[in-house]
Amino acid sequence: MERPVTDEDVRAVVADAAASGTPIAPRGHGTRAGLGRPVEHRPLDLSAVTGIVAYEPAELVLTARAGTPLAEIAVAVDAAGQELAFEPPLAGLAHGEAGAGTVGGLVATALSGPRRIRAGALRDHVLGVTAVSGRGEIFRAGGKVVKNVTGYDLSKGLAGSFGTLAVLTEVTLKVMPKAETAATVLLAGLSDARAVAAMTAAMGAPVDVSAASHLPAPAAARLGFPAAVTLLRLEGVAPSVEERAGRLAGLLKPFGTAERLGSAETARIFAALRDGALFADNRDHPLWRVSVAPTAGPAIAAAVPDAATVVYDWSGGLVLLAVDPAAPDAHAARVRAAVAAAGGGHATLLRGAPDLRLRVPPFEPQPAALAALARRLKAEFDPAGILNPGRMDF
After folding, report:
1. pTM (2 d.p.)
2. What is the secondary structure of 92-149 as a DSSP string?
3. CATH class given for the domain over 7-177
4. 365 CB burial (10 A radius; 0-12, 13-18, 19+)
5. pLDDT tens-place string over residues 302-358
6. Which CATH code is given to the segment(s) 279-359?
7. Reduced to 3 states, what is the DSSP secondary structure of residue 291?
8. Domain edges within the chain
9. Fold equal for 7-177 and 181-275
10. Which pick of 10, 190, 209, 348 has the fewest CB atoms within 10 Å?
11. Under DSSP, is residue 14 helix (H, G, I), strand (E, B) or coil?
12. What is the C-alpha to C-alpha distance for residues 317 and 312, in angstroms, rounded to an integer?
């Protein structure tokens, strides 16, 4: 296994692979290896390409090497009263991995947590990258300040590319001040459709909800609740959170009597949602991650009535379903037909056995024109086709 330390080391490994036509698979700690199609290429271990290069709290900017553990970054920004606002998963619980992973792996897979509905996706927080193309060339994209991008923003284009376009060696992220406190307004016992209506009403209200999630009864029980719960998080300074929670509870009276949870309980609940803890004890169950319009969420869940665990996030626009492992295609046909009937979206097989991920396309099949564009982009960045070929169906 190759284990480079410097950018030049990485460049040399990639250039050698390109010259010999040897496929390679960039990886950090391997916590997200279960995403996408399984591949058996020569590993390129980036765990030694590590360290926080620069952190300027006053400028809200952090630059780190790609192999830097996310846990290390979380400690550094927390000490300065800041955070990664897109709320990245800090543990691979849903995939059975103990570690938090690396910042390069996070950007490569582009995962965001419950706060995405307010703060935006991971790619919105990537300011710049240094990377090595499949040609064996070091390049830089973006910058180290918020307003420093003209033309095509390649740094955001690499987010979610799963190591198929370039090998990341350094990432610059925008960070934000951490809220002083948080509270959750909770509604109990709502049906999925009624919960989506409540979350939609809350998101449309001038109370600055930072997360909106619904847990049907089986998922709610995993967090100790006796019935289904709809969870609306508010963050900020204490007087503001108190006032907004009161207004939100009043607004939601048509949906039932609201309960209020404090900061510690809010942190516990949303850390579990962020990290996939509700799916950690049934790891043999394939896990779907479906992104659709919020109002379409209940129809997606209804398409798989025997799902073991269902969680709605992003006001209902993200549906997570752990399905029966005995289903030959993990209900792929049902799920994707429901997405199409809902007017479009994306269904990703977030977790599944290697043989399942070989039989079932893990990512939403692309329209022909978009697939052709993706292949042309791959050819430009990686003409020899040596960077993770097959991981994303090309």
Report:
1. 0.93
2. -GGGT--S--BHHHHHHHT---TTHHHH--GGGGEEEEEEEETTS-EEEEE-SSSS--
3. alpha beta
4. exposed
5. 999 888 899 999 999 999 999 999 988 999 999 999 999 999 899 999 999 999 999
6. 3.30.70
7. strand
8. 7-177, 181-275, 279-359
9. no
10. 348
11. helix
12. 7
